[in-house]
Hints:
Elements: H1 2-31, H2 34-49, H3 59-70, H4 91-96, H5 113-121, H6 124-132, H7 134-177, H8 182-191, H9 193-201, H10 203-241, H11 246-264, H12 268-288, H13 299-302, H14 322-350, H15 354-382, H16 390-409
Amino acid sequence: MELLDAALAFALTLAALATVVTVLMEIVLRSVLMRKKNLVQVMRLLNDELPNGALGLNEKERWEFFTRVIENPAQGLSARIPKVLDDGKTAADALNAIDWRCLRTGVYDKVSAEHVLRRLVELKNVQKLSKHAADALKQEFYRLACKYEEFGSAVSASFKRRSQLWSILFGIGLAILANVDGVRVFKAFLAKNDLTQTVIARQGQLAAAYGQTEARRQAILVQEAAVSTAKSALAEAQKTHGDASAEARAAQQKLDAENDKLAALANPEELRRLAEDAQQQVASLIALGVPIGNEYFPHCRLFGDDDLSTSCAGPTWPGGAATELWAERFRFLGHIMLWLVPVTITGMLIGLGAPFWFDVAKRLAQVRQMFRGSGSNETRLAARDADGDPKKRREIVTNVVDDAAGATSITP
């Protein structure tokens, strides 16, 4: 049972640290504007596809189309993104020149296929085709809509694969910075039953903390869906009533409001609060007594005030006679390597994600409960006490005698 309890506490600890990784990844994704970068990447793929159709757009028309697609009219494009393509440059060159500094303002995170097609039909040459070759234009638009969805799915799939790798890398980074040695932590849970039971008792709180983190992430997804719905409503209002109609203006105001709400989820204050939550999660584990942090080797030598503390296992910090200095340093480096291997493996385990470890913890808790329940049943079946009740006492006596008589009757 001690081993099972230690495994459960270990899984909960990794789940809590994986929650921190989720928070850190969300901060980075918002800070580096990955969703906007994904939209620009889809535009690059679409730019390569446009020459295969019958629209016959030149480079400047293509660039005009792309700027209309990515521009958020409520903010306006960054001055780093030119509205008009310079002579001698291609649309591909301009798209490749868009970096994170260009994406900080004025660019959508995501747009619908209808939004793309409506921005395309605003071009003069495309408007002419809509009057003289409507059927051919419909076929071309259908092809481009399929390609846009295909490119969007491909970029999203690539983003998810990269996110899985980033999760592992973030887990390793957290394990190194927070000094999370899985071997040391598991040994502590085996040796200290009080610590183990304390962590197990906090299973509900740890799951609730992850639930709050996931709720914030879902809030972003919900708001992105609201923006997409507002875009569709604006497109429908423009199609039905015209761009200058009161309905279109109201729809535009609604879209601007939804975009402002989405932008508020990534403001510096929100990111700072997320960072504080991540730091507090690690601090709470340290406060419980989980052996991580600066009190243990090698962080106690690098960041601690007392490098001779008993919890700081490892060689003494280099010093003393000059003849012993390099030998001491090599011993220290050897301990660093021995420390780095389990910490790296622990980080990879953390990178598997909070849902994985909470699921493991849930299953271990079920097994733990099953063993406890079966033990209680065995105790009850093995023997009963009368507890001072004469009726129970007579029943016990009768059962014992009857069992003995039955056993005698079947003895050969």
